[in-house]
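Quick one before lunch.
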Amino acid sequence: MKNSAVFGLCYNKVDCFADIFNVSITHQLFEMRVRIAIEKVKEAAARRVDTERLQLQKIALKIHANPEIGLQEVKASGWLTAYLEKKGFTVERGICDMPTAFRASYGKGKPRIAVLAEYDALPGAGHACGHNLICTIALGAAVASKQTVDTYGGTILAIGTPAEEIQGGKITMAKKGAFNDLDTALIVHPETFDLATSNALACQNLYIEFFGKATHASAGPERGINALDAMILSFNAIGALRQHIRSTARIHGIITDGGKAANVVPDHSAAEFIVRAADDTYLDVLEQKVLNCFIGAAQATGARLEYRWDEQRYAAMRSNMTLAQLYADNMKSVGRKVPIPNPGAGAGSTDMGNVSQIAPAIHPMVAIAPRTISIHSPEFAQAAASDAGIQGMVDAAKAVAGMIVDLLASPDTLHKVKEEFSRTS
Ligand SMILES: [Zn+2]
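Model of the zinc ion complex:
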């Protein structure tokens, strides 16, 4: 019965089947032509990355040779914006009241796809985190996407985000609305392995001080209040707490002042802690539990407690798994097999987490060194200027440029990305 209306339009069943068959073939041919067109634009984007390779390499190595720590990335920011301007991007410097932040854009209107650049070095360790490659991946992908934008419309942005290492620059930029109008935010970080996205924990630093009363530790201990005892009791209370928290959470800290002399009861002690959790709600719960450990120790010893939570709170990374799949698919085209992690808790924290709460985002890793070495080491700093580092940069730029073709050419794909983002918020 359900086909009666269709048969009603046909003068016999044979012709009707032929019409349906023809429509189906026409549709398949149309889809095939669209797919071929998309592949051609992707190939052109990859060729453009190859054309830009030497210039990108020059910038990556210059930044590597001139490491600048967070908010002092004047040279790096200058080189990156000069390149983008030369390639036809409109550049705004010093956005969000941060002199070394920038936004470069090409195209008009929606969708707005951003690639994020980091370029700060580690204090005392140069580019041991490979941020000289993060920014050139972003530049390569952005410039290679110009033809994509010309073909399908939309806007591609390269956003310069300073000070990832020392103060979470993206947290400040997020508060100032830098990522509010984005449909997708992409970044790729060098590592010793390939991964389609990395999950990261929400986290906040806690600064603690206890104030006691100094006295001779042997001649008059009964007249003193021991600020170090308060701190040690706090550490022990946190040790007991650890057994009863979620396995994905982390609490770790150091004592930065434990007194000055063994024969003086310390009148001051200080510590810095980091509290991490897989989501912001549990971080709230955990922060109160940790604070209670210090409050209890203050009551037990009579020391006065002062504490301060860091203004910058890192949000958990909300990895968009549709984007992660697209990254893995496009990395396959450049010959890299990239695993996709399960959604959920990871390790460490990144200010990209705060971006991922505002726009669909991923934080993939590209391998530039063997797994035997570790990130933030002198060996990794060398890798960030090696042939493998440059190859990783080129591969990642091609993959991101390929993703941008997928997102701009197919409204369905972008819809899927955004639907996942709304569903998981
Ligand atoms: Zn890093």
